[in-house]
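step=encode ok
step=design start
structure_in=
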């Protein structure tokens, strides 16, 4: 599953609550934020790809669900079934094949899903990004779509660490002219790129509360600790 890269979504609002907002480079971002802010629940299918040195090394697919405030669930269907869930208190990673569930407090977790915080918290991208500018070096596969480059803000702890300041992450957002999120990608150290493409967005679908609550099946061991760091730990 995905790498532990950034502060988890439940930690984000506290980390960046007092930071100034970045300038909005385009009304396209306002359309994006407004469209998703209008939804209490969201659902979409996703394709997740890992690149190493420009080469695709793993592809995963499934369905993602979002519930305000601060809850989300990612059900991976291929190449194997796993679940990543944030219930507002804990972050869970469940692998039926391994019959284990890894749990850790949300406030202590790190995850790549930080750039998606606006989907469950109502947070503006300008609070997540220290700068957001139109992307000039890459073109969209669909000509009308808009591309933006976001430089993620550092947490207060990282801001005092010179090594962390030099490792800020750039995130690429691709959206349609009507404000629908199509793609998000970011680069990890050592040339690793994680990319998500989204389709079939649903606004305010009827989602049961139990969907965002993890109940370990009988016989499943619960492990308190770190989430898997790279996709290769499951290969």
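sequence_out=
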């Amino acid at each position: 599953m995905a790498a532990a890269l950034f502060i988890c979504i439940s930690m984000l609002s506290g980390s960046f609550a007092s930071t100034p907002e970045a300038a909005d480079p385009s009304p396209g971002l306002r359309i994006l934020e407004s469209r998703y802010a209008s939804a209490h629940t969201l659902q979409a299918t996703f394709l997740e790809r890992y690149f190493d040195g420009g080469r695709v090394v793993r592809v995963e697919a499934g369905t993602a669900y979002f519930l305000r405030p601060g809850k989300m669930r990612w059900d991976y269907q291929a190449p194997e079934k796993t679940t990543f869930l944030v219930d507002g208190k804990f972050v869970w990673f469940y692998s039926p094949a391994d019959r284990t569930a890894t749990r850790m407090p949300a406030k202590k977790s790190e995850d790549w899903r930080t750039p998606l915080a606006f989907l469950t918290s109502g947070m503006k991208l300008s609070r997540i990004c220290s700068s957001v500018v139109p992307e000039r070096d890459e073109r969209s596969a669909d000509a009308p779509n808009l591309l933006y480059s976001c430089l993620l803000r550092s947490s207060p702890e990282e801001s005092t660490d010179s090594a962390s300041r030099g490792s800020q992450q750039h995130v690429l957002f691709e959206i349609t002219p009507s404000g629908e999120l199509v793609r998000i990608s970011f680069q990890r150290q050592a040339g690793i790129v994680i990319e998500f493409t989204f389709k079939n967005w649903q606004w305010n679908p009827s989602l049961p509360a139990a969907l965002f609550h993890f109940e370990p099946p009988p016989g499943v061991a619960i492990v308190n600790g770190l989430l898997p760091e790279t996709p290769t730990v499951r290969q």
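step=design ok
step=annotate ok -> The chain has one domain: 9-209.
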